[in-house]
Amino acid sequence: MNPVSSHTHAPWPAPAKLNLFLHVTGRRADGFHLLQTVFQFLDYGDVLHFTVRDDGAVRRVSDLPGVAAESDLVVRAARLLQAETGCGLGADITVEKVLPMGGGLGGGSSDAATTLVALNALWRLGLEEDRLAALGLRLGADVPVFVRGRAAWAEGVGERLEPVDLPEPWYLVLVPPVAVATAAVFGAPELTRDCPPITIRDFLAGRGGNVCEPVVRARFPAVAEALDWLGRFAPARMTGTGCCVFAAFADENAARAVAARLPAGWRGFVARGRNRSPLLERLAQGVC
Q1: Could you tell me if 35 and 157 are in contact, meaning their C-beta atoms sit under 8 angstroms apart?
Q2: Under CATH, which architecture does the 1-288 domain have?
Q3: Beta 160-163 vs 58-60: how paired, if at all?
């Protein structure tokens, strides 16, 4: 039997997310931080390709500097799905990496979620969204929101999700030339861990900031510089634990006009906010 299916499927998107605010409200006994945040997707991100194998092997066939295939979340996600379902099929996985690592855009989590959703379809496993999200949580706190694919208010460690309907502005996202380790930020003694809980209504009325921002500003001057520069044009905020910073604009032209003024050597991109993930739209197209 030929171990590899000859059918090449259309690519699957693994979109970026933004944390529109991020508060830490406490800490669990196991050390995990309790959060409040709002996730929104971007129409920009990594792209994954899957070729189904008949022999059960799972291989990442693209290079990703600094990330060994065996520890890559896409490989771990595929093997978890196999283990949970007893599926005898495998896959060759190619990751076109666009999102920066350590950027706060959720690239690794999004890749893992796309792997779960795509292989559930391609292997014809029939797992429901709740089951896939539960598997995703075992891989990382941000994976479930990418599996579900809807902009969400999040609490707990980020796994308690409530869909929200948000404006879908255009964003300019700056990518400072640093990688911020999430564990280092959450481990910082100066991090605020006792934010009073707010409500969705509070957030929509303009309350909420990112408590990780002062920590990262102090430790990474390039992030502070990006926040200050972008803040001259619109309210600027860091996403997640950084390093990327963003600002919202009413239309694409306004975002691109500011992007055109980026200092030499700076990286950034313009993308539309999306309440429905591009992954859901791809899933709706079926196995093709």
Answers
A1: yes
A2: 2-Layer Sandwich (3.30)
A3: unpaired
The single residue listed with the structure tokens 């992954």 is: 279
Q: Is 142 a catalytic residue?
A: yes
The answer to whether residue 63 is catalytic is no
Q: Which of 17, 46, 92, 111 is catalytic?
A: 17
pTM of the full structure: 0.94
One digit per residue, the tens of pLDDT, for the chain of length 288 reads: 444 554 667 999 999 999 999 999 998 888 888 999 999 999 999 999 999 999 999 999 999 888 888 889 999 999 999 999 999 999 999 999 999 988 999 999 999 999 999 999 999 999 999 999 999 999 999 999 999 999 999 999 888 999 999 999 999 999 999 999 989 999 999 999 999 999 999 999 999 999 999 999 999 999 999 999 999 999 999 999 999 999 999 999 999 999 999 999 999 999 999 999 999 999 999 987
User: Of 46, 72, 111, 142, which is the active-site residue?
Assistant: 142
| Contact yes or no for 215/185 (Cβ under 8 A) | yes
Q: Domain segments of the chain: what residues?
A: 1-288
